[in-house]
Amino acid sequence: MKVKMPQVFPPDDKVFGNDTTQHPYGTKLLTHFDDDKNKPMHAIVLGSRWKKDDFGSFPGMSSPFVDGLEPMYTIFMHGELTQIGLMDAHMEEEGIGWDAIGREEAVNP
After folding, report:
1. Residue 55: what are its φ and ψ, rounded to 5°?
2. Are 42 and 30 in contact (CB under 8 A)?
3. Which of 2, 31, 41, 96 could be a cystine partner for 91, CB 3.0 to 4.6 Å?
4. pTM of the model
5. What is the spatial distance between Cα 75 and Cα 107, in angstroms, rounded to a whole number?
6. Are 41 and 33 contacting, i.e. CB atoms less than 8 angstroms apart?
7. 35 near 12, Cβ under 8 Å?
8. Other C-beta atoms lying within 10 Å of the C-beta of residue 73
9. Strand order in 99-103's β-sheet?
10. Angle CA(81)–CA(83)–CA(85) in degrees, nearest 5?
11. Which residue in 20, 10, 5, 7 sits closest to 90, CA to CA?
12. pLDDT per residue over 61-106, tens digit each?
């Protein structure tokens, strides 16, 4: 992402909240299913990528993202590879989105 469009998220942009960079490989993330503290969901960041958004399939709607591409984190969760919106992992409000809770140095999906 940074090579193709290096100014999409400049360091002083608040999209990352208090974190001024993307989460590096091995960052452990936590959220709760349906905001229920008894249902934690853990994930590990493996990288980031662009995903073509689906706004083009709705008549009259244009993409809110540059070139119609949404920034995503590739994550390892519940034994599978999946992805989440990059901005979901950088929400500043407590209990919304994913929280970074540490690093996993040896990730082996």
Report:
1. -65, -25
2. yes
3. 96
4. 0.68
5. 11
6. yes
7. no
8. 25
9. 80-85, 69-77, 40-52, 27-32, 99-103
10. 165
11. 20
12. 666 666 677 788 999 999 999 999 888 887 767 667 788 888 887 7
